[in-house]
Amino acid sequence: MLEFDDIQHILLMRVPALTGRYEFLSFRNATGGRTWLSAIREKVQSAAEVRASVEQEKRWVTVAFTWNGLRALGVDEASMATFPEEFRQGMVARAEMLGDTGANHPDKWVGGLASPSLHAIVILFAGDEAERERCVTEHNKFIAQCRDVEVLSSLDLAAVPPFIYAHDHFGYRDRLSQPVIEGSGEVPTPGSGAPLKPGEFILGYPDEAGPPANLPQPEILSRNGSYMAYRRLQEHVGRFREFLRQNADTPEEQELLAAKLMGRWRSGAPLVLSPTKDDPMLAVDPQRNNDFNYKEMDPQGYAVPLGSHARRMNPRDTAANMNRRRMIRRGATYGPYLPEDAPEDGVERGIAAFVICASLIRQFEFAQNVWANDRNFHELGNERDPVIGNQDGTLEFKIPKRPIRKKITGLPAFTTVRGGAYFFLPGIKALRYLATLGDVR
Amino acid sequence: MSDASKQTSWSKPAAMAIPKGGFFKDKVEQGRYGTIFPKTPACYGFSILAKVIPGREERFYEYARNIEQAVAAQPDCLAVLKLHYLRWVLFPIKGDTYFMYQGIFDTDFDKYTEDAVNLFAATGLRTVFENLEGFPPDWQTNAPAFVKFVREHQCPSFLEYGEYPYVSAEEIKKALRLKAAFSDMLDQMQ
Questions:
Q1: Predicted ipTM of the assembly
Q2: Interface membership of A381 toward B (CB under 8 Å)
C-alpha cells in the first residue's frame, strides 16, 4: 500500500496548472535553510492532500534538495555517504556522459544551476496567473525575512497556447505515455503495459527486481522519497520550423517530417497506427493512442524511424528490461509563444522538465547516455536523438522508406540544455526530519 | 574516426596497439560507471580473469552444460549483450585454478551493465561468477559492486586485430540474410 499522505504529490499526480515558477535556492548556513524549510513545508502537499482537494486548490508546491543542499541543511556525513554515487557527484560532474558538451556544457548554463551552491528547488504550479503572482509575492516576502537564504534564480512557467491540451513550443502534444505505479489506483491505458512496482519510482518499496536495497539512511529520510533530474531545455522554434520548410515541400510533408522526428504526429496520434496521415481523433482517444508496439508492428521503422525521439525514449518491445528503465515526467513549458508566422525573435523558450525515478544511474542516465546519445543506437551509425540528443551539425537522421530511405545530413540542434541538476525529493515526514535536524531529539 | 567512416572500412584489415592500462589518454570516454575501454578493429570486448574458489572447478563444467541448454532452448537469450563471441577458459597458475571470461561485442559494457546483471540472474551465468574469489555476494541488487568486480578483474588488451574491422554482428547477420535472399531470388528465377 502506498503511503499517499507521505509522498509529495508531484510523484504521483499531474495538477491542472497553466502557469508556475521554479525558484533555485542556496542556504548560507544550516539554521537559515532549516528556518526556510520549516515554513515552506507547511505549503507542500502530499499526494493524499492533492487527491482530496485538487478541484478546489489553485496552487501546488514541491520542495527538493541537491546533495550539497542536504549537507547544507546539516545531514551528517555518515548519512550523506549512503546516497548513490551519481547523486553525490551531481549532474555537472556527469556532464560528459550525459552528452552535456559543446553548446550544452555546464559552463554555459544559466541561473546558477551549475554552481555547487545550488541547494534547493521550490516548484510552484498554479492554476492561473493571479494565483502565481500571489504565491510569488508571498514567498518573496518570506525569503526577505530569511537572511541566510539566497534565491540564485527563478524561472516563470507558461503553457503554450492553445491551452486545451499540453504541448511544447514545437507543437508536439505531451503527456501521452506515462508509466502507471502499482497501488496508485490508476489503470494503464491499452498498450501501456502492466503497472510497475512502486520501488521503480518511490524509495522504500519493492521494485521490479525485488525488495528495496541500498537505500539512503536513516530510513525516515529516504522513505517515500525519490530522485528528480531537472533539465531546462531551450527549444529553437525558428530553427525547427525552418528545418521543416527546407526539408519538405508542402505543409503536409512538413507535418509528416515533424512526425518522423518525434514518432507521433504533433497532434499526438502515433505514427505506428496512422503512418501516412494525421488522425486527431486517434490522438485524443486514450483507449487507442498508446496501443502499439514496434517489434511486431513496425520492425523496420517504416512508420516510426528507429532513431526518432519516442522510439528512443520508450523502445517498448524492442529493448530488454524496459520495466527497469521507465521514468515519470513532470514539468512545463516556459518563455513566450512564437506565433506560427513570426520569425525567430531570439527570446529563450523551452521545456523545464523533471525526470523522476528511484535510480538516476539506471533510469535517467541510461536514457540520456544510451537512448538519446549513443550514436550507434539500433545500429544507426551516426545519429542521436533528433530532439534532445547532443547535435553538433555533423550527425544525420534516417527515415526508412520504400524503395530507398531518406537520409537527412547535418541535422541542426533543435534544443540546447540551459541548466540541470539532480534533486532528492523527500517524503513529507522526511521534510519535517530535515527541518528539525538541529533540534535536540 | 567517426562511426560512419569505420563502417566503410570493413574491407581493410586493421590492427590497433593499445597503451598500457587500456586507454588512449587523449580520448578517454566516460560511461555511467567510469571510463570506457576503447573500441578497436575487433570491436568492444573484455577479458575478465579471476581466481576460482578452491574445490569449485567441477561447477564450471556443470555450468557449461547449463548454458548450452539455455541457449538451445532460447537462442536469443544473450541478445541484449550484443555479442560476437564468448570464450570461457580455465587454466592453472602455481597449483591454483584461474578463470578467464573473454567476450567480443558491439557496445561498450558500461551501457548495458544492468541488463547484464539481470541476464546473469535469469540464465544461470551467475553460477560461475559466484565461484570466483571476491565476487560481491549482493551483486543482484548492487550493480555498482558488480561493475567494480568486473573492472578490477578486467585485463585490457595491448593489441587487437580485425580482419573485417568495426563490423557489428547485426551487420554480418544482415549481409547473410541478404545473401540468402538473393540466393532465394535466383532460385525463383529458374
A1: 0.88
A2: yes
